[in-house]
Amino acid sequence: MTSTHLTETVREALNVVPNVSALANAAGVSQSLLARIKAGEREATPAVAAKVAAVLERWSVQCSRAAARIRRSNRRGKR
Asked: Which of 2, 7, 21, 68 could form a disulfide with 44, with the two C-beta atoms 3.0–4.6 Å apart?
């Protein structure tokens, strides 16, 4: 993957994340770095991309589990 394609892919992810600050904190990178990547002022490095991807994957699992718990609770409440 070229660095340009990598940067575009990271930028697309940053555009759908509701809280870039929380993502930066969880990924251990600076908020300003992610903001600059999002604005097209910086290229994403493979290391930054890997950190961002790891956090998004972790959040995805956590959100899916939370949603499943809510659905189970909701079904129990309808009985």
From this structure: 7
